[in-house]
Design a protein that fits this description.
Layout lengths: L4 H12 L3 H10 L2 H4 L2 E3 L3 E3 L2 H4 L3 E4 L6 E4 L8 E6 L8 E5 L3 E10 L5 E5 L6 E4 L11 E8 L2 E10 L7 E2 L2
Parallel strand pairs: 1-3, 2-4, 3-5, 4-6, 7-11
Antiparallel strand pairs: 5-10, 6-9, 7-8, 9-12, 10-11
Amino acid sequence: MTQTRQDTLAHLSAIARGDDAAIRRLLEEGPANLKTPLVVTAASLIVNPNDHEGRMIHLARAAGVAVTLPAAVGSLNKYRMLRTVAVSGGSDVIKPASGTYIGGVVYGLLTIAAASIEMAQTTDNTLTMNGSTQGGLIGSYLEFEDVASGLYRVNGMLYGSGTFIAVFSAT
């Protein structure tokens, strides 16, 4: 069942009024937008808390996606991204509107049983996946959590090929 924003607002209004059927539905089904992944095939995505918090974002454009996260304010909102189409001929570039990253990613090669870990430096505010040496193959997963004013915690598992190079940078 596809649920529009108006349907969701009407449902929340019914819950606020104490409508037992609406409360039961929420408890049984959960919020509809959390269950439906957002498939991104456009060249860019501006993430906003109302539409994207807690929802899986599928990065499905082979030429890469430029993603802008909301400014880090300490909301504890989480934004999850999964590469469902391998990056080729471009890059994913993920940056907050303002703020930097802490945390890191594990990088795995599909051809051998080896992995690397990269931690963000205190000035890093950009994460890039290029489809090979910076991850971005199908299954690459990232989670960004707005943990404090000016600060996102990032963790993830990136799949790639070749000799790993840094995914974090300060730009």
